[in-house]
Every structure is written in structure tokens, then in C-alpha cells.
Amino acid sequence: MQKSSNKLKFRKLRKPEFTGRQRVARNIEMKANLPSNPEQISNAKFRLLTVWGILMAAGLGLAINLYNLQIIQGTKLTQRAKNQQMVKLRPYMPRRLIVDRNDNVLAIDRPVYTVYAHPKLFDKTNEAIAEKLAPFLDKTPAELVKVFQRQKSGITLSSALPETIADQVKGLRLNGLELISKYSRYYPQGDLMADIVGYVNVDRRGQAGVEYSQDQWLERSQKTVSLSRSGNGAVMPDNASEGFLTSDDLRMKLTIDSRLQRATRAALKEQLEQFKGKRGAVIVMDALDGSILALVSQPTYNPNEYSKADISLFKNWTVSDLYEPGSTFKPLNVAIALENGVIKADDTFNDPGAIQIGKYTIRNAGLNGYGQISIAQILQNSSNIGMVKIIQKLKPSVYYNWLERLGVGQPVDTDLPSVASGKLKNQEIFIRSPIENATTSFGQGFSLTPLQLVQMQGALANGGKLVTPHVIQGLIDSKGQTHYTPTRPAPRQIFSTTTAQTVVEMMETVVTVGTGKAAQIPGYRIAGKTGTAQKASPNGGYIPGARITSFVAILPVESPRYVILAVVDEPKGTNAYGSTVAAPIVKAVMNALIPIEKIPPSQEIEPKSTQNSNKETVKD
């Protein structure tokens, strides 16, 4: 009975049953729990309206925001989205090649690699890695081991490893090495063309020579290209224009001849070593148009390793440094006097060996007089006294104007950078002081650059015209067609053709019987003039014992065209003169120039007889 009773109780708890009266009573009870007074009803309605208002405001705000995004800012946001999906690239375009007049490459961009070592990732000993790498990096295994011990990662082993060597290093399959490719400017001729071509720094900007002055033409222009990205960030060339990675085949062609440049450098280095000169330079110019065929300066630097060079070598001193030309300027003074009609080619002058100008005494270099001598003999013997007497026939104001007309005191117009402006005394001082005329007559008291002297001597070689010395031919394509030629000033007629040829023939006697005998070449008529000038001091006056020796030549005399100037700064020895130091250099250069330019031998013409040709000449 007890079990049965418990079962009944359990069922009542799970399934309560109500009668009809009970349901009515329950509903009445629930209604009794609702708010019955007005205040409670008002609060409930307020809460309901508040919720409804919030929902409506949110919906309205959302609608406004959607309108703003879709309608007002739709175009702008669409473009922003496209920009986020695009990447702007400026493809690498190598600099244009530089070639000589025979298309020999002087400068080119080539792929190189920066090699990093991470010793912590080596799977072999430092010694084993060093043993395999050493032959490719120009280092000994011991040196590499020391390098590996400095730090555990990020060691630069080479900053410009050539592509062929880099491929061999990759072939070693050594862990812990990282090779990153880049492009670098390379100069196949090494230091041969440094003074002309210059170099490019790590930012790919020209810093000297043609690389600097022609930077805008050597750097290929390339527009930025916009490319789209895929979902994983990969660049897709969908929007790239056709041929956006192609470049033109234009190259910068120079007037320089590498063969002549090499022969010229060899001749200059030989004399510099023999006379222990401080520095030297040689310039070869075609006077018909001003093309420079060779320009050598020593000492120089290797543009492939410019960071190791003395920065003073980066400027080309043939265009940036001034010097007093000395006796090599005398032929130009003779031309000025002839052009003005104050002398005639067959005039003679008395040279007692010394002359008094105010409180100054001027003497010949050999401290001796030559008596009654012709103008040709004044050049042969490099007579200072004879030159002073010639220039004394000119009014100082006229002489000064002619110096300015020649360009003395002004920079020479050329396509090489860092051109210095020559120095000439103020006109008032020059005219008032007779000593200025006198010293200028034999090439001292003013200064110019070696290149400017070549330009002026070129006016004697080409019939009296002042041309623009230059090294740039222009931009040439692979088929030899010219696409750009620099605009140069038109040649200026300075001397008459007759005057120019007369002076050249006088200069020929300098080589045949005068101080320039060392420049003689059998079968060729050569004009020349030696020069041995005191070296001016930056503080005024002259440096005791210091001299600059030079020699200028024009050939062939019967049809003048080529000008060669050699200058050697501070040669050592008691026998260091323009005739002994510079003239042999010019002769060696002419021996190389003749076959290159195919200059035929001169006709067997007896040179004009000169008086006192048996006299001992000074070594000017």
C-alpha cells in the first residue's frame, strides 16, 4: 500500500490538473499583476516609444550613410579601392652606353651582385666555407675566416661581384650565403678614359667627366607604370602598356680614339717617370672642327674603384686648372702683330739679351743676346727680348682688346665639366703699366687652361678660326644614325688665312733648326713651339725652382689640321725644359697619330732658310 501511495503522489507533481474554476481564478490572478495605475502605463509606453525611436534613428542614419558612401563619395571611394589594388612601378632602365669614335665601349651598365655571409647559418666550418669562397673573392681563406668571426650575420663579402663569378658562387650551393642582384656602371678601359668619361656614384648620378656633363642624355627617361595586384598580392601586367620594358638602343658617341689615347698615355707616363714630374697632360685636337682625339692626364684614377681614389683626381686639370703658358703663347702674339700690320714677316729686330722696362729688367732664358734676328728666329730661339719689341709696336689698348678677342681671361666653351675661367689683369692696370705688355708678350703675367691654349693654337692650324673643343659626337643608334648632336657656337674668324699660315711656317723653323728639334719626324713637315715657364705661386710671385714645361705642335705644315699639346708640371733635373721633356712626348704621339689618321708624308720641300741657324739655341 505504501508503494502505491508514493506512486500516486509522483504523478500529481508532474502533471497537475486544474478544474475550470481553477483556470478562471488563475487568469484573474495574472491580470491582477498588470500595472493598474496611469503612471505605470505611461512609463511602459515611454519605454516602448524610446526603443522604437532608437531603431528608427539607427535605420535613418544607416540610410544616410549608405547614400553618402554610394552616391556622394561613390566615385572617390571606387578610385581609392582601385588604387589599393594597384602598384606603381618605375622599371629599371640602364644608362646609355658611352663609346669612342670606333664604337669601343667605354662605359656600360652590367648586372652585379652584393654578397652577404651569415655564419650562423653555415652548415660547415668557417674554414671549409672560406676555402671554397676565397678564389672567387680575391681573398685568402685566412682573411675570410677572420671576417666570419666578426659577427654572426649580415657580413658584406663583396658589393659588386660580376655576374659570371656570382654564378660560380651560386654553383657551390653553400648555406649561409645571400646574393642580391643590382646594376652597376662598368668601365672596360679602366683608368684610360677616366678624365674624359668620369664615373657614376651609388645613386646612379654622374660625378665627373661626360657622365656628369651629359647626365640628362645618358639617363634613359622611363615613366611610372601602374600594375594591378591579384588577391595574393602578386603583380599582374594587365594594365601595362605594350613594350613598357623595352628601351632605345641609343649610345653616346665620343670623338676620342682609344688607340691614340693609349699611345698618348704611354708616352706621357714614360717622361713623367724619367723626369719625376708632379703631373702631366696631353691633348690632341682636330682643328677643323674642334674634335678632341685624345686627352690624357697623369696621375689619374680607376672609375671602377673611384671610392679608393684621391678626390683631387676627379677634376680634369686640363680644363679646371690655370697655368701661365710661357713661350708656347709667342706664336699667337706674332699673329696678333701681323694681323694689325705693325710688323711684316721679313722684319728683323735687335736682341741685346736684356731690356729695361721701367724699374724691371727682362732677359732671355739663356741670358744671352742674338743680335739682329728675324721674327722666325725669335720663335726658334724663344727670344723674350724680340717678343717684347714686337708687342711694343702695338698700342696697349689694341693689344688688350686682341687678348680678349682670343678669349684670354674667359672660360673656354666645351662639353667637359668644371671649366675654369682664365685670368687677365684689369684693362686699366694693363694699359697703364708697360711691364704688363712686356711679360704678356712672352706668355707670363696671365693664365689659362691647357685646353684653351689648344683652342687658340687651333686658330693657327685651321686658317684663323676659333673653334669649340669638344668630346661629344652625339647620340647614335645601332645602325649608325645620329639622333642628337650638341649645338655649338659657330667658329669665329680671328686671324686671316694668310696670317695663320705665315705663323705656322715660322713655327716649322722651330722644329727644323730651333728648340723643337726633338719633335722632328722624317718625311713630315711639323710646326712647333717649346715653352718653359716659371710656376706662379698662389700667394703671388713665382715658386722658386718650379717650372712648367710644354710643347705644342701643328701638322702637317702644308695643310695644317692637328694640334698636339704636352704639359709637364714641375719636372726635376737640370736638363728639364720644354725641348727635352715635352717635345719627345709630342713626337711619340704624332708617330701614333700619323697611321691612325692616315696622314701622308709631306712633299720634299726645303724649309725656308733662316739666318744664324748655326747658333746655339736655348732649351726652352
Note the topology:
Layout lengths: L1 H13 L5 H13 L5 H35 L1 H12 E4 L7 E3 L5 E13 L8 H12 L3 H8 L6 E8 H9 L5 E10 L7 H4 L11 H5 L1 H4 L6 E5 L5 E2 L14 E4 L3 H18 L3 E8 L4 E8 L18 H4 L9 H10 L8 E4 L2 E4 L2 E4 L7 E4 H6 L3 H8 L4 H11 L20 H6 L1 H8 L8 H12 L3 E2 L5 E5 L5 E3 L7 E2 L3 H16 L14 E10 L5 E14 L6 E8 L8 H20 L23
Parallel strand pairs: 2-8
Antiparallel strand pairs: 1-6, 2-3, 3-4, 3-5, 6-7, 8-16, 9-10, 9-21, 11-14, 12-13, 15-18, 16-17, 19-20, 20-21
Helix pairs in contact: 5-6, 11-21, 13-20, 15-18
Strand content: 15-25%
Alpha-carbon distance between the two ends:
155 Å
Low-pLDDT sequence parts = 1-13, 609-617
* Number of E-type strands: 21
Structural class by sheet pairing and helices:
alpha+beta
Strand count, sense and barrel status of the largest sheet are: 7 strands, mixed
Share of helix among residues?
25-40%
Shape: elongated
What would the average pLDDT be, to the nearest integer? Answer: 87
What is the helix tally? 21
C-alpha Rg (nearest Å): 44 Å
